[in-house]
Design brief:
Elements (H helix, E strand, L loop, with lengths): L5 E8 L2 E8 L2 E5 L1 E3 L12 H6 L5 E4 H6 L3 H6 L3 H5 L5 E4 L2 H7 L1 E5 L4 E4 L6 E4 L1 H11 L3 E3 L11 H22 L6 E6 L5 H14 L3 E4 L8 H8 L2 H4 L6 E3 L5 H9 L4 E3 L2 H8 L1 E4 L2 E4 L19 H5 L2 H9 L3 H27 L3 H9 L8
Parallel strand pairs: 4-14, 5-6, 6-10, 10-11, 11-12, 12-13, 13-14
Antiparallel strand pairs: 1-2, 2-3, 7-8, 8-9, 15-16
Helix pairs in contact: 6-7, 7-8, 12-15, 14-15, 15-16
Bound molecules: the ligand CNc1nc2cc3c(=O)[nH]c(N)nc3c(CCO)c2[nH]1.
Amino acid sequence: MTATFSFDLKATDGKARTGVINTPRGDIRTPAFMPVGTAATVKAMMPESVAATGADILLGNTYHLMLRPTAERIDRLGGLHQFMNWDKPILTDSGGFQVMSLSDLRKLTEEGVTFKSHIDGSRHHLTPERSMEIQKLLGSDIVMCFDECPALPADRKRIQESMELSMRWAQRSRDAFGDRPGHALFGIQQGGLEEDLRGRSAEALRAIEFDGYAVGGLAVGEGQEAMFKVLDFAPDQLPVDKPRYLMGVGKPDDIVGAVKRGIDMMDCVLPSRSGRTGQAFTRRGVVNIKNARHADDPRPLDAECTCPACSNYSRAYLHHVFRAQEMISGMLLTWHNLHYFQEIMAGMRTAIAAGAFADWEADFHAGRAKGDI
Ligand SMILES: CNc1nc2cc3c(=O)[nH]c(N)nc3c(CCO)c2[nH]1
């Protein structure tokens, strides 16, 4: 915990890195996975449970909170940390991506985006300046630039124009963010799957100077192979001494592959969203607990897991409460999945520090069954 924001790179193993991001609200061990707390809650989890899984930071969303309960109300109530009872770091996304994926987009102009709320149809306007204001009102520790993330597939012209717009918005975000010691502003690289466009984006962001750099524009349907091809060059285009954040990723093997390629931070709804639908991630693969074959199984989800679901309940019980649509079902499986994702991160941090990432990765992939186990 420090008064300012800094990144301390501790060790590397190949392209994989491990370190600590120091912030006034606490340290973030990297590589780090951020649970998604979209509407000021990590769904089905108490904040102290999220902390118990090992999470050092969680993600909040400008888009959702500006619509409900509004950033101004959260500010009047003491800010997002106090509001949701989470006193560790929070990173907030800037809203552009969620507008495109959630709202009836009205129009996108140089100025910003105008859209209708997916909640009540009311009209709203987001610009780089307004996004910075909202994230400041929320009190988030790591603020994301306001950007545009084009849906893939898209032709090169569209990708280029979108990236160039995002770079102009990055400058406006920087100018509006101002000087806020202890708070960080991260730029977001765009450019689709194109190495040259991503290079230009990285250069533009370097010139503006940010506290961290995100690889945006991925995990939008391109598939793991195409994503890894981009990650084979994109992290190296970004400053080596700043955190690199891959947005919206991913499945366990996506996460391992991204860290292997030099990524320090990630966020994804997968562990929480799939936990609520009965999909459990384990070191041996995925368990779909609603499957009838678990109805009489006295074993835990994962005998090696120390989370509350695996320590105290059988597959048969979890199967039952999912079939009965009991609230504890989503709570237990979300807790398990977030616990397991943090175990993957902790395992990689230790392995990288010991120069043993390759062995850890081989062990991670060994014994992972395909399909339901
Ligand atoms: C699930 N896939 C995904 N890809 C993303 C890509 C972006 C992106 O390019 N920009 C911004 N601001 N947010 C993004 C987010 C939301 C955060 O998870 C993404 N999420």
